[in-house]
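This entry is retained here.
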Amino acid sequence: MLKTNVERIQKDIESLAQFSCVEGIGCTRFTYTKEFAQARDYIVSEMKAAGLQVREDAVGIIIGRMEGKNPDAPVVMTGSHFDTVKTGGRFDGPAGVIAGLETARVLHEEGFVPECPIEFVALPEEEGARFGSGLFGSRAMCGQLKPGEIENNKDWDGVTVAEAMKGYGLDPSKAAEAQRKPGEIGTFLELHIEQGPLLEKTKTDIGIVDAIVGLRVFDIHVYGRSDHAGNTPMNMRADTMLAAAKAVTAGTEKALEIGEGTVVTCGRLETVPGAFNIVAKETFFQIDCRSKSIENVDAVMAVITESLQKSAEENPGLSFTMEEKVSAMPVPMKAEIQAVMEEEAADAGISTVRMLSGAGHDAMIMGSLCPVAMVFVPSKDGRSHVPEEWTDYEDLQKGIEVIYRTVKRLAGEK
Protein backbone atom coordinates (compact mmCIF):
# COMPACT_ATOMS: atom_id res chain seq x y z
CA MET A 1 0.00 0.00 0.00
CA LEU A 2 1.33 3.42 -0.95
CA LYS A 3 1.70 6.01 1.80
CA THR A 4 1.34 9.04 -0.49
CA ASN A 5 -2.11 10.44 -1.31
CA VAL A 6 -3.16 10.68 -4.97
CA GLU A 7 -6.08 13.03 -4.23
CA ARG A 8 -3.77 15.58 -2.59
CA ILE A 9 -1.32 15.25 -5.47
CA GLN A 10 -4.08 15.93 -8.01
CA LYS A 11 -5.28 18.94 -6.01
CA ASP A 12 -1.77 20.40 -5.97
CA ILE A 13 -1.29 19.97 -9.72
CA GLU A 14 -4.66 21.49 -10.55
CA SER A 15 -4.26 24.34 -8.07
CA LEU A 16 -0.86 25.42 -9.40
CA ALA A 17 -2.08 25.12 -13.00
CA GLN A 18 -4.59 27.90 -12.32
CA PHE A 19 -1.78 30.42 -11.84
CA SER A 20 -1.24 31.18 -15.51
CA CYS A 21 -1.22 34.44 -17.46
CA VAL A 22 -2.84 32.73 -20.47
CA GLU A 23 -6.27 31.18 -19.97
CA GLY A 24 -7.32 28.02 -21.75
CA ILE A 25 -4.00 27.27 -23.48
CA GLY A 26 -1.79 25.21 -21.20
CA CYS A 27 0.03 26.94 -18.38
CA THR A 28 2.19 30.07 -18.74
CA ARG A 29 3.91 31.15 -15.53
CA PHE A 30 6.99 33.29 -15.97
CA THR A 31 9.39 34.04 -13.12
CA TYR A 32 8.70 37.05 -10.84
CA THR A 33 5.26 37.76 -12.36
CA LYS A 34 1.90 38.08 -10.60
CA GLU A 35 1.08 34.46 -11.43
CA PHE A 36 4.46 33.36 -10.11
CA ALA A 37 3.74 35.15 -6.82
CA GLN A 38 0.36 33.43 -6.60
CA ALA A 39 2.01 30.04 -7.06
CA ARG A 40 4.61 30.96 -4.43
CA ASP A 41 1.88 31.81 -1.94
CA TYR A 42 0.17 28.46 -2.53
CA ILE A 43 3.40 26.51 -2.09
CA VAL A 44 4.33 28.44 1.06
CA SER A 45 0.87 27.80 2.54
CA GLU A 46 1.08 24.07 1.84
CA MET A 47 4.61 23.87 3.26
CA LYS A 48 3.50 25.54 6.47
CA ALA A 49 0.51 23.20 6.72
CA ALA A 50 2.99 20.30 6.54
CA GLY A 51 4.80 21.65 9.59
CA LEU A 52 7.82 23.06 7.76
CA GLN A 53 9.83 26.15 8.62
CA VAL A 54 9.47 28.23 5.45
CA ARG A 55 11.59 31.01 4.00
CA GLU A 56 12.22 32.65 0.65
CA ASP A 57 15.87 33.20 -0.18
CA ALA A 58 17.58 36.09 -1.98
CA VAL A 59 16.58 34.98 -5.50
CA GLY A 60 13.11 33.70 -4.65
CA ILE A 61 13.81 30.03 -3.94
CA ILE A 62 11.13 28.75 -1.56
CA ILE A 63 12.66 26.55 1.12
CA GLY A 64 10.64 24.47 3.56
CA ARG A 65 12.81 22.91 6.26
CA MET A 66 12.16 19.92 8.51
CA GLU A 67 14.73 20.19 11.27
CA GLY A 68 16.84 17.19 12.13
CA LYS A 69 18.20 15.88 15.42
CA ASN A 70 21.56 17.06 14.15
CA PRO A 71 20.78 20.49 12.62
CA ASP A 72 24.36 20.94 11.43
CA ALA A 73 24.38 17.73 9.41
CA PRO A 74 24.32 17.96 5.58
CA VAL A 75 20.78 18.50 4.30
CA VAL A 76 18.75 16.02 2.27
CA MET A 77 17.05 18.25 -0.30
CA THR A 78 14.30 17.54 -2.82
CA GLY A 79 12.31 19.70 -5.18
CA SER A 80 12.18 21.23 -8.65
CA HIS A 81 11.13 24.44 -10.41
CA PHE A 82 7.74 26.16 -10.56
CA ASP A 83 8.12 28.41 -13.59
CA THR A 84 6.89 27.19 -16.99
CA VAL A 85 7.54 27.71 -20.66
CA LYS A 86 5.03 29.70 -22.72
CA THR A 87 1.75 27.76 -23.06
CA GLY A 88 3.43 24.70 -21.56
CA GLY A 89 2.00 21.92 -19.45
CA ARG A 90 1.10 21.64 -15.79
CA PHE A 91 3.54 18.89 -14.84
CA ASP A 92 6.99 20.05 -16.03
CA GLY A 93 8.61 21.35 -12.84
CA PRO A 94 5.59 21.48 -10.51
CA ALA A 95 5.50 17.66 -10.40
CA GLY A 96 8.84 17.73 -8.56
CA VAL A 97 7.75 20.56 -6.27
CA ILE A 98 4.61 18.62 -5.39
CA ALA A 99 6.72 15.51 -4.77
CA GLY A 100 8.37 17.54 -2.02
CA LEU A 101 5.07 18.83 -0.65
CA GLU A 102 3.52 15.37 -0.46
CA THR A 103 6.68 13.85 1.03
CA ALA A 104 6.66 16.54 3.73
CA ARG A 105 2.98 15.89 4.48
CA VAL A 106 3.43 12.14 4.90
CA LEU A 107 6.51 12.55 7.09
CA HIS A 108 4.64 15.14 9.19
CA GLU A 109 1.64 12.82 9.59
CA GLU A 110 3.97 10.02 10.68
CA GLY A 111 5.64 12.25 13.25
CA PHE A 112 8.97 11.45 11.65
CA VAL A 113 11.97 13.23 13.14
CA PRO A 114 14.96 12.95 10.81
CA GLU A 115 18.55 12.56 11.90
CA CYS A 116 19.65 15.29 9.47
CA PRO A 117 17.60 18.25 8.19
CA ILE A 118 15.37 17.84 5.14
CA GLU A 119 14.68 20.78 2.82
CA PHE A 120 11.90 20.92 0.25
CA VAL A 121 12.52 23.52 -2.45
CA ALA A 122 10.69 25.28 -5.27
CA LEU A 123 13.05 26.99 -7.70
CA PRO A 124 12.63 29.96 -10.09
CA GLU A 125 13.55 30.42 -13.76
CA GLU A 126 14.73 26.91 -14.59
CA GLU A 127 13.23 27.15 -18.07
CA GLY A 128 14.80 30.51 -18.95
CA ALA A 129 11.52 31.36 -20.66
CA ARG A 130 11.47 34.95 -19.43
CA PHE A 131 15.11 36.05 -19.33
CA GLY A 132 16.75 33.57 -21.71
CA SER A 133 19.19 32.08 -19.22
CA GLY A 134 17.79 29.02 -17.49
CA LEU A 135 18.60 27.04 -14.34
CA PHE A 136 18.72 30.36 -12.52
CA GLY A 137 17.72 29.21 -9.04
CA SER A 138 20.01 26.20 -8.92
CA ARG A 139 22.89 28.22 -10.41
CA ALA A 140 22.36 30.82 -7.69
CA MET A 141 22.55 28.11 -5.02
CA CYS A 142 25.74 26.78 -6.58
CA GLY A 143 27.39 30.19 -7.06
CA GLN A 144 27.24 29.98 -10.85
CA LEU A 145 25.44 33.21 -11.76
CA LYS A 146 27.47 35.11 -14.35
CA PRO A 147 28.81 38.64 -13.68
CA GLY A 148 26.29 41.20 -14.90
CA GLU A 149 23.64 38.57 -15.63
CA ILE A 150 21.07 40.01 -13.23
CA GLU A 151 21.67 43.58 -14.41
CA ASN A 152 21.82 42.87 -18.15
CA ASN A 153 19.54 39.93 -19.03
CA LYS A 154 16.17 41.23 -20.20
CA ASP A 155 12.74 39.88 -21.08
CA TRP A 156 10.74 40.68 -24.24
CA ASP A 157 9.67 44.04 -22.78
CA GLY A 158 13.22 45.09 -21.93
CA VAL A 159 12.76 44.41 -18.21
CA THR A 160 15.99 43.22 -16.60
CA VAL A 161 16.20 40.42 -14.07
CA ALA A 162 17.13 43.03 -11.44
CA GLU A 163 14.07 45.16 -12.22
CA ALA A 164 11.79 42.14 -12.14
CA MET A 165 13.25 41.02 -8.81
CA LYS A 166 12.60 44.45 -7.32
CA GLY A 167 9.01 44.36 -8.54
CA TYR A 168 8.63 40.94 -6.96
CA GLY A 169 9.94 42.19 -3.62
CA LEU A 170 13.54 40.98 -3.75
CA ASP A 171 16.78 42.93 -3.54
CA PRO A 172 18.96 41.96 -6.53
CA SER A 173 22.09 43.28 -4.80
CA LYS A 174 21.74 40.42 -2.31
CA ALA A 175 21.46 37.62 -4.89
CA ALA A 176 24.83 36.15 -3.87
CA GLU A 177 23.32 35.29 -0.48
CA ALA A 178 21.43 32.44 -2.17
CA GLN A 179 24.69 30.52 -2.58
CA ARG A 180 24.96 27.47 -0.33
CA LYS A 181 28.22 26.46 1.32
CA PRO A 182 30.16 23.36 0.27
CA GLY A 183 29.08 20.44 2.44
CA GLU A 184 25.86 22.16 3.53
CA ILE A 185 23.73 19.99 1.21
CA GLY A 186 24.36 16.26 1.37
CA THR A 187 21.99 15.06 -1.37
CA PHE A 188 19.64 16.57 -3.94
CA LEU A 189 16.75 14.47 -5.27
CA GLU A 190 14.50 15.59 -8.11
CA LEU A 191 11.35 14.07 -9.54
CA HIS A 192 10.48 15.09 -13.09
CA ILE A 193 8.26 14.01 -15.93
CA GLU A 194 10.19 12.02 -18.52
CA GLN A 195 9.38 14.34 -21.46
CA GLY A 196 9.90 11.34 -23.73
CA PRO A 197 8.09 8.10 -24.70
CA LEU A 198 10.21 5.31 -23.17
CA LEU A 199 8.38 4.69 -19.90
CA GLU A 200 4.95 4.70 -21.52
CA LYS A 201 6.12 2.51 -24.40
CA THR A 202 7.70 -0.09 -22.11
CA LYS A 203 4.88 0.14 -19.54
CA THR A 204 7.42 0.85 -16.78
CA ASP A 205 6.24 2.76 -13.69
CA ILE A 206 9.26 5.01 -13.18
CA GLY A 207 12.73 5.72 -14.55
CA ILE A 208 15.85 5.90 -12.42
CA VAL A 209 18.13 8.37 -14.19
CA ASP A 210 21.71 7.27 -14.84
CA ALA A 211 23.02 10.61 -16.06
CA ILE A 212 21.94 13.99 -17.41
CA VAL A 213 23.38 15.07 -20.74
CA GLY A 214 25.76 17.99 -21.05
CA LEU A 215 24.57 21.05 -22.92
CA ARG A 216 25.51 24.45 -24.19
CA VAL A 217 23.17 27.25 -25.25
CA PHE A 218 24.36 30.17 -27.39
CA ASP A 219 22.87 33.49 -28.46
CA ILE A 220 24.14 34.25 -31.98
CA HIS A 221 23.79 37.59 -33.79
CA VAL A 222 24.64 37.88 -37.48
CA TYR A 223 25.07 41.38 -38.90
CA GLY A 224 24.93 42.32 -42.58
CA ARG A 225 23.14 44.72 -44.92
CA SER A 226 19.55 45.20 -46.07
CA ASP A 227 18.98 45.27 -49.82
CA HIS A 228 16.14 44.93 -52.31
CA ALA A 229 15.05 41.31 -52.71
CA GLY A 230 14.63 41.59 -56.48
CA ASN A 231 17.45 43.81 -57.68
CA THR A 232 20.37 42.61 -55.55
CA PRO A 233 22.31 39.67 -57.10
CA MET A 234 22.80 36.69 -54.84
CA ASN A 235 26.58 37.01 -54.96
CA MET A 236 26.46 40.63 -53.84
CA ARG A 237 24.46 40.23 -50.64
CA ALA A 238 25.37 40.25 -46.96
CA ASP A 239 22.37 38.04 -46.16
CA THR A 240 22.32 37.27 -42.45
CA MET A 241 19.37 34.89 -42.69
CA LEU A 242 21.17 32.75 -45.25
CA ALA A 243 24.30 32.64 -43.07
CA ALA A 244 22.21 31.54 -40.08
CA ALA A 245 20.42 28.87 -42.11
CA LYS A 246 23.72 27.45 -43.37
CA ALA A 247 25.11 27.34 -39.82
CA VAL A 248 22.06 25.56 -38.40
CA THR A 249 22.11 23.06 -41.26
CA ALA A 250 25.83 22.38 -40.77
CA GLY A 251 25.32 21.81 -37.05
CA THR A 252 22.40 19.47 -37.68
CA GLU A 253 24.39 17.38 -40.14
CA LYS A 254 27.27 17.14 -37.66
CA ALA A 255 24.97 16.00 -34.85
CA LEU A 256 23.55 13.29 -37.13
CA GLU A 257 27.06 12.21 -38.06
CA ILE A 258 28.19 11.98 -34.42
CA GLY A 259 25.10 10.15 -33.14
CA GLU A 260 25.35 8.92 -29.53
CA GLY A 261 22.17 10.82 -28.67
CA THR A 262 23.70 14.15 -29.77
CA VAL A 263 21.02 16.70 -30.65
CA VAL A 264 21.09 20.34 -31.77
CA THR A 265 18.09 22.67 -31.91
CA CYS A 266 17.38 26.14 -33.24
CA GLY A 267 13.97 26.94 -31.81
CA ARG A 268 14.17 30.73 -31.99
CA LEU A 269 15.13 32.92 -34.93
CA GLU A 270 14.38 36.60 -35.55
CA THR A 271 15.27 38.86 -38.48
CA VAL A 272 15.51 42.62 -39.01
CA PRO A 273 13.71 44.33 -40.66
CA GLY A 274 11.57 41.21 -40.93
CA ALA A 275 10.01 41.84 -44.35
CA PHE A 276 9.62 39.19 -47.08
CA ASN A 277 11.04 41.43 -49.80
CA ILE A 278 14.08 42.81 -47.98
CA VAL A 279 17.38 41.01 -47.39
CA ALA A 280 17.72 40.68 -43.61
CA LYS A 281 20.41 43.01 -42.26
CA GLU A 282 20.38 41.28 -38.88
CA THR A 283 19.48 37.78 -37.72
CA PHE A 284 19.37 36.56 -34.14
CA PHE A 285 19.07 32.88 -33.30
CA GLN A 286 19.65 30.57 -30.37
CA ILE A 287 21.38 27.21 -30.53
CA ASP A 288 20.82 24.46 -27.96
CA CYS A 289 23.16 21.46 -28.24
CA ARG A 290 23.13 18.40 -25.96
CA SER A 291 24.93 15.08 -25.69
CA LYS A 292 26.12 12.58 -23.12
CA SER A 293 29.63 13.70 -24.12
CA ILE A 294 30.52 17.40 -23.89
CA GLU A 295 33.13 16.76 -26.60
CA ASN A 296 30.27 15.96 -28.98
CA VAL A 297 28.58 19.25 -28.08
CA ASP A 298 31.81 21.15 -28.70
CA ALA A 299 32.26 19.41 -32.06
CA VAL A 300 28.81 20.54 -33.22
CA MET A 301 29.40 24.11 -32.04
CA ALA A 302 32.77 24.17 -33.81
CA VAL A 303 31.06 23.30 -37.11
CA ILE A 304 28.45 26.03 -36.57
CA THR A 305 31.20 28.57 -35.85
CA GLU A 306 33.18 27.48 -38.92
CA SER A 307 30.08 27.88 -41.10
CA LEU A 308 29.51 31.43 -39.83
CA GLN A 309 33.19 32.28 -40.34
CA LYS A 310 33.02 31.00 -43.93
CA SER A 311 29.91 33.10 -44.60
CA ALA A 312 31.67 36.17 -43.21
CA GLU A 313 34.74 35.53 -45.39
CA GLU A 314 32.68 35.04 -48.55
CA ASN A 315 30.34 38.00 -47.96
CA PRO A 316 32.03 41.37 -47.26
CA GLY A 317 30.06 43.36 -44.71
CA LEU A 318 28.83 40.26 -42.85
CA SER A 319 29.92 39.59 -39.25
CA PHE A 320 28.67 37.69 -36.22
CA THR A 321 28.92 37.38 -32.43
CA MET A 322 28.33 34.35 -30.22
CA GLU A 323 27.53 34.48 -26.51
CA GLU A 324 27.30 31.36 -24.38
CA LYS A 325 24.21 31.60 -22.16
CA VAL A 326 24.17 28.19 -20.50
CA SER A 327 26.89 25.60 -20.11
CA ALA A 328 26.63 22.36 -18.18
CA MET A 329 28.76 19.23 -18.16
CA PRO A 330 27.18 15.77 -18.25
CA VAL A 331 26.21 14.82 -14.71
CA PRO A 332 26.22 11.21 -13.48
CA MET A 333 23.73 10.29 -10.78
CA LYS A 334 24.94 8.89 -7.45
CA ALA A 335 25.04 5.09 -7.77
CA GLU A 336 24.33 4.45 -4.09
CA ILE A 337 21.18 6.60 -4.20
CA GLN A 338 20.05 4.92 -7.41
CA ALA A 339 20.31 1.61 -5.61
CA VAL A 340 18.24 2.92 -2.69
CA MET A 341 15.57 4.15 -5.11
CA GLU A 342 15.42 0.77 -6.83
CA GLU A 343 15.16 -1.07 -3.51
CA GLU A 344 12.40 1.21 -2.24
CA ALA A 345 10.51 0.96 -5.53
CA ALA A 346 10.69 -2.83 -5.48
CA ASP A 347 9.44 -2.87 -1.89
CA ALA A 348 6.42 -0.80 -2.99
CA GLY A 349 5.75 -2.98 -6.05
CA ILE A 350 6.83 -0.22 -8.46
CA SER A 351 8.70 -1.23 -11.63
CA THR A 352 11.83 0.67 -12.67
CA VAL A 353 14.28 1.08 -15.53
CA ARG A 354 17.62 2.89 -15.75
CA MET A 355 17.64 5.68 -18.35
CA LEU A 356 19.48 8.75 -19.65
CA SER A 357 18.01 12.25 -19.33
CA GLY A 358 18.27 14.18 -22.58
CA ALA A 359 16.78 17.26 -20.92
CA GLY A 360 18.63 19.55 -18.57
CA HIS A 361 17.32 19.85 -15.02
CA ASP A 362 18.20 21.68 -11.82
CA ALA A 363 19.76 18.42 -10.60
CA MET A 364 22.36 18.89 -13.34
CA ILE A 365 23.57 22.11 -11.71
CA MET A 366 23.19 20.80 -8.16
CA GLY A 367 25.58 18.00 -9.10
CA SER A 368 28.42 20.51 -8.78
CA LEU A 369 27.53 20.96 -5.10
CA CYS A 370 26.44 17.53 -3.89
CA PRO A 371 25.47 13.99 -4.98
CA VAL A 372 22.25 13.97 -7.00
CA ALA A 373 19.63 11.48 -8.18
CA MET A 374 16.46 11.70 -10.26
CA VAL A 375 13.18 9.86 -10.73
CA PHE A 376 11.25 10.10 -14.00
CA VAL A 377 7.50 9.48 -14.30
CA PRO A 378 5.78 8.71 -17.64
CA SER A 379 4.74 11.38 -20.12
CA LYS A 380 1.71 10.56 -22.27
CA ASP A 381 2.86 10.18 -25.90
CA GLY A 382 6.24 11.51 -24.72
CA ARG A 383 5.02 15.08 -25.03
CA SER A 384 6.14 18.09 -22.98
CA HIS A 385 6.39 21.88 -23.26
CA VAL A 386 2.94 21.81 -24.85
CA PRO A 387 -0.59 22.19 -23.42
CA GLU A 388 -1.19 18.48 -24.10
CA GLU A 389 1.55 17.50 -21.63
CA TRP A 390 0.08 14.86 -19.32
CA THR A 391 1.04 12.35 -16.64
CA ASP A 392 -1.65 10.19 -15.03
CA TYR A 393 -1.96 11.07 -11.35
CA GLU A 394 -1.52 7.42 -10.33
CA ASP A 395 1.77 7.33 -12.26
CA LEU A 396 2.90 10.54 -10.60
CA GLN A 397 1.99 9.10 -7.20
CA LYS A 398 4.29 6.12 -7.78
CA GLY A 399 7.21 8.41 -8.51
CA ILE A 400 6.44 10.54 -5.47
CA GLU A 401 6.21 7.39 -3.35
CA VAL A 402 9.79 6.53 -4.31
CA ILE A 403 10.96 10.06 -3.51
CA TYR A 404 9.21 9.91 -0.12
CA ARG A 405 10.72 6.54 0.75
CA THR A 406 14.20 7.58 -0.42
CA VAL A 407 14.13 10.87 1.50
CA LYS A 408 13.01 9.07 4.64
CA ARG A 409 15.72 6.46 4.33
CA LEU A 410 18.52 8.93 3.58
CA ALA A 411 17.49 11.28 6.40
CA GLY A 412 16.60 8.59 8.91
CA GLU A 413 18.42 7.56 12.01
CA LYS A 414 21.80 6.00 11.43
